[in-house]
């Protein structure tokens, strides 16, 4: 069994723990939170007795094999590096770090120390994502793709009321492209890797982060448009268009439903049944990496491309984080 500890006590941590336990390959052994009372309350849900509010103590716990990190984006680099330094493998929520330099340093450090660093890019490991990949040849020559993810943040009302929530604070390396746009960006990278060029636009809030934006990725002979927003909802599906047909994807981060529309013929739903907890598949993927000790795994390449593009997008829309000055 993989002895798992977690950093963070929010809903996404709970969802990952549930997914990991479903695989029957993990044992939850420790919980960390900056607030010891939150750690205690969270641990009680899973009958875990070991809790920490000190990262050094967690890093020194010899009964932990891997640490799952779901803290604010700006903390990912330092927390992941500390765990790697203490012989812990790391699963880290996306985005892996605040910028490309940090990501490169973290990947290089993990390789040197023969530890696994794994970005929780859940979409890549979904059965329906693999289905989409397998259907691309049926589309013929691809010319256009619209990848859409716009979700009104539950903290936006607080921001409008004059508060300063983490989700709209550049101190925490947040904003629409980092928190929402990362999903369609990674979707494109997972299918077509690095584009030949990139153009980004965005609208900035007074706090200094982007509220929403558009990204154009150009490949050799087709382009991908990304819509992302933290201040509006969208009900438009994503679409990949080819000369012989199109794929239509509902809620692309989870590939909830997939439809194939041939140029001549009826619309076909081709959705595969997936686990209701989409994080189940990334937990399985990491378990395989752990068992085989695959330090230099394929996910590292995707993480580096993603980080490079996120850094370039922020440069183009003039969103800067304190981490960029480190």
UniProtKB/TrEMBL annotation:
GO terms for molecular function: nucleotide binding. Transmembrane segments: none annotated. InterPro entries: Gfo/Idh/MocA-like_OxRdtase_N (IPR000683), GFO_IDH_MocA-like_dom (IPR055170), NAD(P)-bd_dom_sf (IPR036291). Residues 139-247 form the GFO/IDH/MocA-like oxidoreductase domain. It comes from the Bacteria. Gene3D superfamilies: Dihydrodipicolinate Reductase, domain 2 (3.30.360.10), NAD(P)-binding Rossmann-like Domain (3.40.50.720). Residues 2-118 form the Gfo/Idh/MocA-like oxidoreductase N-terminal domain. This is Oxidoreductase.
